[in-house]
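Input for the complex:
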Amino acid sequence: MISVEKALEIILNSTQDFGVEEIPFLQSSGRILKESIFADRDFPPFNRVTMDGIAIDVTSFQNGQRSYKIEGIQAAGSEQISLKNRENCIEVMTGAVLPKNTSAVVRYEDITIKNGIAIINIDAIYDRQNIHEQGKDEQKGTELIAKNTLIGAAEIGVFATVGKSMVKVAKHPKVMIISTGDELVGVEEIPLAHQIRRSNVFTLVSLLNTLNIHSETNHISDDKMVLTSKIKEYLENFDVLLFSGAVSKGKFDFLPEVLENLGVEKLFHEVAQKPGKPFWFGQTTSCKVFAFPGNPVSTFVNCLVYFYPWFYNSTGTKIEKKTAILSEDVIFKPNLTYFLQVKLSYRFGHLIATPINSNGSGDLSSLINADGFIQLPNDKIEFKKGESFKVFSF
Amino acid sequence: MISVEKALEIILNSTQDFGVEEIPFLQSSGRILKESIFADRDFPPFNRVTMDGIAIDVTSFQNGQRSYKIEGIQAAGSEQISLKNRENCIEVMTGAVLPKNTSAVVRYEDITIKNGIAIINIDAIYDRQNIHEQGKDEQKGTELIAKNTLIGAAEIGVFATVGKSMVKVAKHPKVMIISTGDELVGVEEIPLAHQIRRSNVFTLVSLLNTLNIHSETNHISDDKMVLTSKIKEYLENFDVLLFSGAVSKGKFDFLPEVLENLGVEKLFHEVAQKPGKPFWFGQTTSCKVFAFPGNPVSTFVNCLVYFYPWFYNSTGTKIEKKTAILSEDVIFKPNLTYFLQVKLSYRFGHLIATPINSNGSGDLSSLINADGFIQLPNDKIEFKKGESFKVFSF
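Predicted:
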């Protein structure tokens, strides 16, 4: 049995590159950018008017002039016009190009317009006021977004701004999620007294959807022959297999044996943690196998603790680690890392983790009231109110 | 001009009910549940074996017996069998039904099996050990998930467990996102010197996708006739119109006038905030109109600060408010609520907000380095390192 830290180290050293694909920018939210995005021109691309009002040559104002004949209008989206007489002005709209021969914009609020004449009612105007100067935000050629950025709404806006209608993103792994166990029946079936419905595979589908990974699911009965032939096929056709169940010590838990017979290199089996201990991890040259224990909370926590970081590492994404503060003392005696279900809330900038009373590791419905697992390390027994630990929120 | 608090109050009092729809459970992640989910049977539905080993009648052990003939195997997914002779045992697997006439499970680790006889090597066995008793987690008929819960992976797992293959969720609003402004060209076009590409509508599409809202987009030129006829059509066919641009004081910013002429009741125009001040909000009986200012950061912040809570309130979702701690002193003199771009990170359970230096409210690319806005209220000028404020993360 290895430690959580060691298990994670092994997993993070077994990352995989799934390549790159080019997709329409508007579909790229939640994906990992695999190219640098550069400014295709200066931003703003011209001296941009930032207030509605009039544009003047500021030297005239400095010479004492206060009354300006309106020569024309410069609207947003119109070609730049020129102030012909430097003692006149041009009405300008937010977003417009600053007219040639002008050097400051005076807001409508600060002028009075009558009979085509604008009178300035304030005493000070500075050069370049209310002008967002060309290239001030970004110069043409600057890197705006670095490779390996997780794409969100701000990135989508920048793609549009620089005309990147197609973007290169990390390809996602082809994932097959497999349930085993003859006690399982489908969601739409009425289980007999000794049966229960499949649920873990769907929890996993949903957890992977959160990462924008679309997965397939299947169920294999507890039959060594069937298990062997199906898994052989999946190992050849998928980048990742996720199993739920069949990895503890039972007579019909022959999954580890089947995997090893099929040439999957075992990297570890069993991690010193609760819940989620009987976790088996292995690989072939082209496929990773995460075989999680069958109980719902174990599957859930192991997906967050192991699969998520493995995926982030494989795609080159950096994710900020969260820590939270215990709201009460917790005692946990076994020499295991304890993933305790917690409710998370913010108080004055502190992320507070309140333990949830659950009946044990198998109770999926307790997760409904939780929104994270706090990771209490195995080198202590008492965890004090006010201490902070790593937290996995969902 | 009204305060941010007043604007939010008006918006939260203008919520709308979009009704309920029934969808396949596996597509319901990110949606708001609109029914209660009950346990369709006890959980566990039977006395469930939690360890692989043997099941015995514990009274025999208490009478001093240590050696048990193995009568049979109870596998997971098999109908319950009976222990015929109470001085024998049955091999049992994790997930199996506890056999009739047995009352404790002894792990393989604690026994030795030879020639069909299991010998118990430990001195104490308690009644019901290694058995997850029927109904211990949940009793049949208990509410497992309340109405108005935001659906995630745990809920998906529970739906599957209780056989809810179709679930009732809040219908989402039909949203049209409209850009205006003749300076705008399409993402795939090469803008002329005085033009820029449309980007805000796509930022909004992406921000709404995060809420699982699928929206349509369109562009209308700065022509009062066209604007009027298009908006009339959209008001009739959509629940929400989101505008970006054309709501400040410019000569061609006639959107507020057009809206009011079309019978849209103005609820406010201009909020005492930076960025995002020239925000116009109004409604008809069937449609809400959020007209955001045209600059990218203003649109972004107003969508988070106003549209998100409006949507949560309309669908009955409760969202935990986040607060964060300033990492440095900030001075902001104008009598406006300041939405400052920040980078967020967790340190010992504290959510730390580090201000991002941006060139002003118009610079979308500065948002690439930010992951939130901290809300600094307008009743102060100095905001001290260590103080906590509401934060909107993205």
